[in-house]
Design goal:
Elements: H1 2-15, H2 28-53, E1 56-62, E2 70-71, E3 73-79, E4 82-87, E5 92-93, E6 99-104, E7 121-125, E8 133-136, E9 148-153
Helix pairs in contact: 1-2
């Protein structure tokens, strides 16, 4: 927001020139009114653009421990036309040698270590075993076809 205010100040200086397209005169009262109007319009446009670019939460949930220690909240969010898996600050997983994030078409009740990758899409290797993280979901994937998000140790087929 600081950058937007600096641009507003530069444009305000431009409005103080002898030929102003807003019809203001060199009279300080008119210039003050024109400056206030310009700043108000700039702030309205800034807030509108910020709202358009804000993230939208598509889904949210909580991890369910299957075979190994796993806890925390997660969400799927959309920003800039892309979908992201967001692990909350309270995310925590047990350390493993080959932890990966998968989107699975199987329900969390029916999936197990041996069937975890069946029909699943690999999103990315897990970066950290605790704390907030964000992962971009590949391409134009229709996320409505997936029922669960898995943290899976592919090497030992453990959820």
């Amino acid at each position: 927001m600081g950058g937007n205010l600096n641009r507003a100040k530069l444009k305000t200086q431009y409005l103080r020139g002898p030929t102003c397209s807003m019809g203001a005169t060199n009279d300080s009262k008119d210039m003050h009114s024109a400056t206030k109007l310009f700043l108000a319009l700039t702030l309205c446009i800034t807030f509108f653009l910020t709202a358009l670019l804000a993230e939208t939460t598509i889904a949210q949930g909580e991890f369910i421990e299957k075979e190994k220690s796993l806890s925390g909240n997660l969400s799927i969010e959309q920003a800039d036309g892309k979908n992201y898996i967001v692990l909350a600050d309270n995310f925590k997983a047990r350390k493993g040698p080959d932890l990966k994030i998968f989107l699975s078409p199987q329900s969390i009740d029916s999936v197990n270590g041996k069937t975890a990758v069946k029909g699943s899409i690999l999103v990315e290797n897990l970066k950290e075993i605790k704390g907030g993280q964000r992962y971009q979901i590949p391409g134009e994937l229709d996320i409505s076809k997936y029922k669960s998000l898995l943290i899976h140790c592919e090497k030992y087929t453990v959820l």
